Amino acid sequence: MKKIMLLVLLATALSAEYIPFKVKLNMYDRMVVETLLPKEANFVTLKILNDLRMELSPTAEELKAINIRQNPEGTGIIGDWDKVPEKEIVFYELTEKAVVDALKKLDSESKLLAEHLSIYQKFVTRE
């Protein structure tokens, strides 16, 4: 009886369909998420990640609108991030896992930065 129940549970789990994760990201968060994606992988994974990078990357119009420039203190970049509306990005299982894994790794190493906070909340804690 236990074996049958285990097989039913296993079959149910295997047939469960993954639901893509949709999240609205502002321009700044899109750029930060892009930095979290792995730079090395197999061909298929790199193709999928490249497609996501294209989706996250700003268009020419968005770049013009946000007017990215060097911070006067030389500590990074600043921009008029609110001039570009949030964009809903769809993350599929592989891409969602890549972002979550990167964030969890940074967290476990105590290397999270302030720029990661809103992304961590959206992806890991789902706030």
Description of the structure:
This protein has one domain (19-123). Strand 2 and strand 3 form a beta hairpin. The mean pLDDT is 89. It has helices at residues 2-15, 27-36, 43-56, 60-66, 93-108, 117-123; strands at 21-25, 69-70, 77-78, 87-91. The strands form 2 sheets. A two-stranded antiparallel sheet has the order 1-4. Strands 2-3 form a two-stranded antiparallel sheet. It is globular and about 65 Å long. The protein is mainly alpha-helical. Helix content is 54%, strand content 11%.
SSE diagram, text form:
Layout: H1 2-15, E1 21-25, H2 27-36, H3 43-56, H4 60-66, E2 69-70, E3 77-78, E4 87-91, H5 93-108, H6 117-123
Mean of the pLDDT scores? 89
Nearest-angstrom radius of gyration?
18 Å
Biggest sheet descriptor:
2 strands, antiparallel
What general form does the structure show?
globular
Give the H and E element order.
Answer: HEHHHEEEHH
Strand order of the largest sheet: 1-4
**Overall tally of structural domains:** 1
Low-confidence stretches: none
Helix count, DSSP H or I runs of 4 or more residues: 6
The secondary structure category is: mainly alpha
Please state roughly what percent of the residues sit in beta strands, choosing from under 5%, 5-15%, 15-25%, 25-35%, 35-45% or over 45%. 5-15%
Cα separation of the termini: 41 Å
Strand count: 4
Roughly what percent helix?
A: 40-55%
